[in-house]
């Protein structure tokens, strides 16, 4: 669906009852799954096919700890042996994954705690591609985005014509407004691959996203 230089590719699947977007990032002989959501079976099959050709799943990255984004962390880890990375302040959500799922009426998944935490400015790699971590708290305290080339995998911070909920535990509207401001300051051509809904761009959201604009105005951002 989107690409940056070299042989880097991104495969997306819209998954489960909350239509959560999972992304499989692949370059040469390395891959990463971002947000292994409920029933990301198309991506799981693709990764199994890639693994059979010698591609290694090197990590499982979570944009944030809400259950729909991390539901199959344990399944992917068991299948491929890759470590789980999540924002430091969202590790709490992974510990309480069962409660999160049951609260939503879904069967309790197996718990897998983060192996490593993510923080602002960290540089990650897949093959030859370097990927930066941007802390984007507000929807959850430890939300992060993954930035490479003109692409941002942004989790639930901004969507096409809407923005992340701030009525969940640990959420904060003023903090989300500041994170939206950071996204607004990215180059306008930046493609946003969100946690739900369609791919969009910074320019399009700056132009059209009334909810985000109102939230930023309210908090003086
Ligand atoms: Zn969320």
Estimate the mean pLDDT confidence. 95
SSE string, helices as H and strands as E: EEEHEHHEHHEEEEEEEHEEHH
What coarse outline follows from CA principal-axis ratios?
globular
How many discrete domains? 1
Strand arrangement, major sheet: 1-2-3-4-5-6
TL;DR?
It is globular, with a radius of gyration of 16 Å. The chain contains eight helices and 14 strands.
Describe this structure in words.
With 221 residues, the protein is an alpha/beta fold. It has one domain (8-218): Ribonuclease Z/Hydroxyacylglutathione hydrolase-like (Metallo-beta-lactamase, Chain A), CATH 3.60.15. It is 29% helix and 29% strand. It is built from 8 helices and 14 strands. It has helices at 41-52, 67-70, 73-80, 91-95, 97-103, 173-184, 202-208, 210-218, and strands at 9-15, 20-27, 30-34, 56-61, 84-87, 116-118, 123-126, 129-135, 144-148, 151-155, 158-159, 162-163, 191-194, 200-201. A 6-stranded mixed β-sheet has the order 1-2-3-4-5-6, with helices on one face. Strand 11 (158-159) and strand 12 (162-163) form a beta hairpin. The radius of gyration is 16 Å and the shape is globular. The protein starts with 8 loop residues before the first strand and ends with a helix.
